[in-house]
Design brief:
By secondary structure, the protein is α/β, with parallel strands linked by helices. The protein is 36% helix and 19% strand. It has two domains: 68 residues, no CATH class; 278 residues, Rossmann fold, CATH 3.40.50. It has eleven helices and 14 strands. A ten-stranded mixed sheet has the order 3-6-8-7-9-10-11-14-13-12, with helices on both faces. The protein has a two-stranded antiparallel ribbon with strand order 1-2. Strand 12 and strand 13 form a beta hairpin.
Length: 361
């Protein structure tokens, strides 16, 4: 287990010694050079003087403590490679793969929590997004949890449109974040969430929760503006204009909607992604309308500027793109999910977005 070690102990010990000397120095300077040596010796032996020196040392050490907290380091540099974490909430298991990069030092690192879509898993999401390979190059941690089976009969994540009274996936992700902070030495200010499809919807809801520790999100092929959003973070949404599962435009016909689909989910899938992003940006205080930039022949970026607290919003549209992760290898389900563009790598774009909204070094 890799814990985190604050430098407080060293600071308090060293600071106390320095402050005792400083306080003694201040005392002897008041007495004058003729009695300095005697006063210093008496100060070391006198309990009253020790008490005053201790008070002074504590005051000085606490000042150094507040300055030195930024120097937190891991007890040891985490071991590169794959480990697993067991998270359980209300009797449901949420196993998670945690990948430490090959290039890792003892400083707390950023983490990307990568959320899969319906009927998938953490390992499958890892193969789709390839965040681990990018982590080896960039030095961040990747966590890939797996969601339990839900009301649709497949694995996935509980969102507002698929609410289960006795289930709390958001708390499960909170527990995973606790594990990452306690055992994997990640930076609490650089907790990022990427999500695909159902995972993208959950990413949006996690970011909005009061007290959330999520610093920014990337949602691919699935995003919405929760009815209640208590906080706003930098948000990148990537969506295929020809997505047959989560249609881009309003009143779209999703291939997975039938007469057994919960009405709340059917309504969500029929909403406009562009409208959802616009509403989220407006709620975050961003200027409207967005500026449009053509990134490639089939890639257009809509950017909302002036967002409060730096909560930038971007919507990247893939013309002709399906319900896919741009830049990933085409799947055997392409006939059902639609095509995957090679003109955009959602993993690279997502990490670039995260790093552009990281804390200053």
């Amino acid at each position: 287990m890799v814990g985190r070690m604050r430098v407080a102990t060293a600071v308090l010990v060293t600071g106390a010694a320095v402050c005792v000397a400083s306080c003694a120095s201040e005392k002897t300077s008041e007495l004058g050079p003729a009695v300095a040596a005697t006063a210093t010796a008496q100060a070391a032996a006198s309990s009253n003087t020790q008490s005053a020196a201790t008070t002074c040392a504590r005051r000085c050490a606490l000042s150094r403590w507040s300055t030195q907290l930024a120097l937190d380091v891991c007890e040891v540099a985490p071991t590169p490679g794959l480990t697993t974490a067991a998270v359980e909430v209300d009797g449901r298991a949420y196993p998670a793969d945690i990948y430490q990069p090959q290039r890792r030092d003892a400083a707390p690192a950023a983490v990307v929590i990568d959320l899969h879509g319906l009927d998938s898993s953490g390992p499958a999401q890892a193969a789709l997004t390839r965040f681990r390979q990018l982590a080896d190059r960039e030095g961040f941690v990747v966590a890939e949890p797996s969601g339990p089976v839900g009301p649709l009969g497949v694995t996935g994540w509980e969102i507002a449109a698929l609410d289960e009274p006795d289930r709390d996936d958001a708390t499960a992700i909170d527990q995973l974040i606790d594990t990452l902070l306690d055992d994997q030495c990640v930076d609490p200010e650089q907790i990022f969430v990427a999500g695909y499809s159902n995972g993208g919807f959950l990413a949006a809801e996690l970011a909005c929760r009061p007290g959330s520790r999520v610093a920014a999100i990337v949602a691919v092929a699935g995003f919405h503006m929760p009815e209640q959003c208590d906080r706003h973070v930098p948000t990148l949404v990537i969506h295929g204009a020809a997505d047959p599962i989560v249609p881009l435009g309003p009143n779209g016909m999703s291939l997975i909607v039938d007469n057994t689909t919960p009405p709340s989910l059917a309504a969500l899938l029929a909403s406009s992604i562009e409208d959802q992003v616009a509403m989220s940006a407006s709620s975050a205080g961003c200027a409207n309308p967005p500026t449009s930039t053509e990134l490639a022949d089939d890639i257009t970026e809509l950017s909302y500027a002036g967002c409060v607290g730096g909560a930038d919003h971007k919507l990247v549209l893939v013309e002709g793109g399906g319900h896919t992760w741009p830049g990933a290898a085409p799947t055997q389900d392409e006939g059902f999910l639609g095509p995957t563009t090679a003109n955009l790598d959602a993993t690279e774009a997502g990490w670039a977005f995260f790093t552009s909204h990281s804390k200053p070094s």
